[in-house]
């Protein structure tokens, strides 16, 4: 136990995540990153929508130049291109992480822990949603999750998870 901010509240130190747990969590994190990048692309494209609708063939009233607007459009397109490249790299990582989740789930002998692992880390569902959909209690879902992680570690998935994590970091 340790004191938080010098106060009187005590809490347990969390043990470090196993490679299996880190890999499984990485799948959901990557899913979130991909969604955020897609949103950024859509927002960037939407912000340039007004610029593309300008009729450049008509004479201008003010002293601005076409180059100002064209530069803005080009900058916006360059930003979309950068985000698209980032999206593609993260989609590759997400695909590999999800394949690893399925591979790990297949290592589990029982269907209930397997369902929890797939729902949580492949489909990125909340614990509450998993409990509701599987008709297990919230505590039972957490117990099944703990059993699944322990089973995967006992079956030697740690080394495989470590190798996949290293590969994901390199992409």
Describe the structure.
The chain has 171 residues and is mainly alpha-helical. Helices cover 73% and strands 2% of the residues. It has seven helices and two strands. The protein has a two-stranded antiparallel sheet. Helix 1 (19-47) packs parallel to helix 4 and helix 1 (19-47) runs parallel beside helix 7 (157-170). The longest helix has 41 residues, at 66-106. 19% of the residues are buried.
The secondary-structure element order is EEHHHHHHH
N-end to C-end Cα span = 38 Å
- Secondary-structure class: mainly alpha
- Look at the structure and give the mean pLDDT: 87
Please give the share of residues in helix: over 70%
Write the layout of secondary structure elements.
Layout: E1 2-3, E2 10-11, H1 19-47, H2 49-52, H3 66-106, H4 111-122, H5 127-134, H6 138-154, H7 157-170
Antiparallel strand pairs: 1-2
């Amino acid at each position: 136990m340790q004191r938080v901010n010098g106060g009187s509240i005590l809490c347990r130190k969390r043990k470090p995540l196993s490679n299996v747990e880190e890999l499984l969590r990485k799948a959901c994190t990557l899913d979130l990153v991909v969604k955020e990048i897609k949103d950024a692309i859509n927002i960037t494209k939407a912000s340039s929508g007004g610029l593309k609708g300008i009729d450049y063939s008509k004479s201008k009233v003010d002293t601005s130049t076409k180059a100002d607007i064209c530069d803005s459009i080009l900058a916006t397109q360059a930003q979309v291109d950068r985000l698209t490249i980032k999206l593609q790299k993260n989609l590759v990582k997400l695909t590999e992480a999800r394949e690893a989740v399925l591979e790990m789930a297949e290592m589990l002998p029982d269907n209930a822990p397997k369902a929890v692992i797939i729902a949580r880390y492949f489909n990125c569902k909340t614990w509450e949603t998993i409990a509701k959909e599987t008709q297990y209690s919230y505590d039972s879902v957490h117990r099944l999750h703990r059993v699944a992680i322990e089973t995967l570690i006992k079956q030697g998935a740690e080394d495989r998870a470590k190798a996949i994590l290293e590969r994901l970091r390199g992409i």
